[in-house]
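Long-time lurker, first post. I've been practising inverse folding by hand and with some scripts of my own, and I keep getting stuck on stretches where the structure tokens seem ambiguous. Below is the full token string for one chain I'm working on. Before anyone asks, I'm not after the true native sequence, just a reasonable design that respects the backbone. If someone could post their per-position residues I'd love to compare against what I wrote down in my notebook.
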């Protein structure tokens, strides 16, 4: 059996040294993978229970057209999301075009001129800079007279409680907390830590709305930020909760008034959640959500594997090979553009779609540096599928995520390593000698 796997890997361009190195690393991770599977089992039943409680029926899988009034499948799905996240309500729509749109919608619909937005966890995700107006953006919150404050994390990654207390004021209306590290090398926040931060902020100002950018965090733990006080959790359906099947979409789950505000902004005042045809998309939304816990587990295993593969070769990795996980992203720092590019080219070559094309860095809308992206995905740009991206700027870190199955994630990571070996960035001798 082992030989056969080695042979098929070889036929796919993975040399013996890389294959054997991968075997050794995978052999060390069985206990860790058992823990990941246990979380997936819990979340699988959580999703199943929500679907049964909301009595998802065959009729829910049909779509509506036109205005989409009385769309049973859409309304039921939103009920399922609300059950999964333990929130009063949810907005789950194909008309929400991406994660940035979902976040912008949640912000713009719940803030009014004169209000202030606070990020107590440092700089938010790159694409939100233009939404907020940190960088000039047409139609930004800033243009509407909504101001922004930021308190950075402390050097050790801790919350700057004193700093936060100092900036919360009578205009502070909404606090945005990004769970995942995004394109930064700071640690991702656990649900526990998010809960502590929310409790602290509500202790200063009870009526402030706490929103969590939940991108990449869904189903990584048993609890979600909405279980520890978040008024809204927001994310993209082409990441974890879409399970790889949702071809588009975003969600906002949270307090009824917050979700209603968002719906009135997405559609129109007076129409709110009542309109918005689901067309033919609901089977993928339902089935994707159903698969999301195990798909997320596959991606997590890939991330842990990648951390161990690269850490033992001497590259800084965040999180490290042992620490607990709170999102599916793995950062590997190469310290030079060549490493980022070789890694991404290896991931692309491991893809089921477009494996024959070679990615190059380009000026992506919304980002301030050139970015290279490897994404040979069934759904364009989907990052729950095996993918990697990295801005071409110091410290030259690559962000790896996804993998719909663990075998594919593993293959992709070994392909990235082979690419680094082929380009002379990693020596084959290092694979044999590395401390395992
Ligand atoms: C992906 C992501 C976003 C933006 O989502 P897009 O779908 O790419 O617009 C926002 N925040 C975080 C933390 C993300 O990972």
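-- Answer (accepted) --
I ran through it position by position. Result:
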């Amino acid at each position: 059996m082992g030989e056969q796997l080695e042979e098929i890997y070889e036929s796919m361009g993975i040399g013996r040294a890389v294959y054997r190195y991968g075997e050794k690393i995978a052999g060390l991770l069985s206990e860790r993978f058992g823990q990941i599977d246990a979380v997936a089992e819990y979340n699988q039943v959580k999703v199943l229970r929500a679907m049964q409680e909301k009595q998802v029926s065959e009729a829910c899988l049909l779509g509506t057209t036109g205005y989409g009034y009385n769309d049973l499948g859409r309304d039921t799905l939103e009920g399922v999301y609300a059950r999964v996240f333990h929130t009063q309500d949810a907005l789950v729509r194909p008309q929400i075009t991406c994660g940035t749109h979902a976040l912008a919608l949640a912000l713009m619909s719940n803030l009014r001129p004169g209000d202030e937005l606070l990020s107590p966890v440092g700089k938010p995700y790159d694409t939100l800079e233009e939404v907020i107006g940190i960088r000039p953006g047409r139609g930004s919150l800033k243009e509407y007279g909504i101001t922004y404050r930021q308190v950075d994390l402390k050097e050790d990654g801790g919350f700057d409680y004193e700093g936060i207390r100092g900036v919360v004021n009578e205009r502070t209306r909404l606090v945005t907390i990004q769970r995942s590290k995004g394109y930064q090398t700071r640690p991702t926040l656990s649900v526990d830590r998010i809960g502590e931060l929310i409790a602290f902020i509500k202790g200063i100002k009870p009526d402030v709305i706490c929103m969590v950018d939940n991108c990449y965090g869904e189903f990584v733990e048993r609890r979600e930020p909405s279980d520890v006080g978040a008024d809204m959790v927001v994310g993209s359906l082409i990441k974890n909760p879409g399970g790889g099947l949702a071809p588009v979409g975003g969600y906002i789950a949270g307090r009824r008034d917050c979700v209603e505000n968002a719906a009135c902004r997405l559609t129109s005042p007076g129409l709110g959640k009542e309109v918005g045809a689901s067309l033919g998309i609901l089977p993928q939304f339902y089935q994707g959500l159903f698969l999301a816990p195990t798909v997320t587990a596959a991606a997590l295993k890939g991330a842990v594997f990648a951390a161990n593969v690269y850490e033992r070769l001497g590259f800084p990795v965040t999180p490290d090979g042992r620490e607990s996980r709170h999102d599916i992203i793995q950062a590997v720092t190469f310290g030079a553009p060549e490493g980022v590019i070789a890694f991404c080219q290896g991931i692309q070559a491991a893809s089921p779609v477009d494996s024959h094309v070679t990615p190059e860095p380009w000026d992506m809308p919304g980002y301030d540096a050139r970015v290279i992206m490897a994404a040979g995905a069934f759904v364009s740009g989907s990052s729950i599928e095996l993918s990697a991206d990295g801005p071409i700027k110091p410290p030259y870190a690559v962000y790896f995520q996804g993998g719909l199955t663990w075998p594919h994630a593993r293959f992709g990571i070994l392909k990235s390593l082979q690419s680094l070996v082929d380009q002379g960035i990693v020596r084959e001798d290092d694979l044999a000698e590395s401390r395992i």
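A couple of notes from the structure itself: The mean pLDDT is 96. Residues 98-100, 103, 125, 127, 178, 180, 182, 213, 215-216, 236 surround pyridoxal-5'-phosphate (CB under 6 Å). Happy to go over any region you disagree with.
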